[in-house]
Amino acid sequence: MKISIVTAVYNDPRIARALGSIISQKHDHELEIIVVDGASTQETQEAINNYRSHITVFISEPDEGIYQAMNKGIAKATGDIIGILNADDQYSDTLVLRDVTNTFGSSSTEAVYGDLLYVNESGQTLRYWKSHSPGRLKWYRGWMPPHPTFFVRREVYDKYGVFDLDFGTAADYELMLRLVFKYRVNTAYIDRVLVHMATGGTTTPTIPTVLRQNYQVFRAWRHNDLRFGLAVPFLKVASKPLQFFIHPRT
Questions:
Q1: pLDDT tens track for 88-120
Q2: Alpha carbons 143 and 137: distance in angstroms, whole number
Q3: Measured between alpha carbons, how far apart are the two ends of the chain, in Å?
Q4: Which pLDDT band holds residue 135 (cuts at 50, 70, 90)?
Q5: What is the 3-state secondary structure (H, E, C) of 75-140?
Q6: Domain of residue 107, residue span
Q7: Burial of 33 per CB tally in 10 Å (0-12, 13-18, 19+)
Q8: Which of 13, 56, 206, 232 meets the CB 3.0–4.6 Å disulfide criterion with 32?
């Protein structure tokens, strides 16, 4: 089994931390690292260059944002499994890819995800995103897996498509809604933290971004011809405080 990890970056030297966490993984499978850079400035380029001997595919050119960059990386991936790690995030420990590939050991498993921690630059946990096992009713309550923990078989992307750039910062939600809810790919949950996600990234919530994203959530349901999409954004907002208080800062 071969696993491809795609990391998109633009002017963020913290990619060195992300790449270090990929390279440190302990597993028995072939690893392909794909970096898609949006023509970053020198500081980020130097951070990438320190790891160039480990990078299988490197693309550096202007793009239209993170999701187009991710699509470029997916198109270049040759692994059986594709994971995406943001430039400012990192795997929680050295056994993440081992656990992911073991979970994909069943040929019927098409996607895998786990839990996520939001952390600050000091490594302090700000929020625990507890995913739980998949269930269709959860989608109606606004549930979604944490995208940085979401690993997919390459043939799933080939069959059902990649990120739709028309959905802006909600492109990850639309993708997972399409794959997991609409097309019902066979999904498995790893009951532990897989990724530490830095605060302040592209999708870290503010009131205006939450409003825009929830409008895009409604559009995602309508675009995929799914019923009850109008109620989901409201339920999605209501579910966030509950998730926060169940899993407080540690």
A1: 999 999 999 999 999 998 779 999 999 999 998
A2: 9
A3: 36
A4: confident
A5: HHCCCCEEEECCCCCEECCCCHHHHHHHHCCCCCCCEEEEEEEEECCCCCEEEEECCCCCCHHHHH
A6: 2-246
A7: buried
A8: 56
* Mean pLDDT of all residues in 181-205: 84
Cα separations in angstroms, 95 against 53, 92, 172, 190: 22, 8, 25, 12
CA 101 to chain centre: 16
Total structural domains within the chain: 1
Number of other CB atoms surrounding residue 14 within 10 Å: 18
123: left (phi over 0), alpha (psi -120 to 50) or beta: left
Task: Please name the amino acid found at residue 183.
Answer: Y
pLDDT tens readout for residues 7-63? 999 999 999 999 999 999 998 899 999 999 999 999 999 999 999 999 999 999 999
pLDDT of residue 105: 86
Of 197 and 141, the structure prediction assigns the larger pLDDT to 197
Q: At which residue do the structure tokens 């919530």 appear?
A: 205
Return the CATH number at 196.
3.90.550.10
Asked if 96 contacts 25 with a C-beta cutoff of 8 angstroms, the reply is yes
The pair of three-digit structure tokens given for residue 174, joined into one six-digit string: 């639309």
Distance of CA 189 to the CA centre of its chain: 14
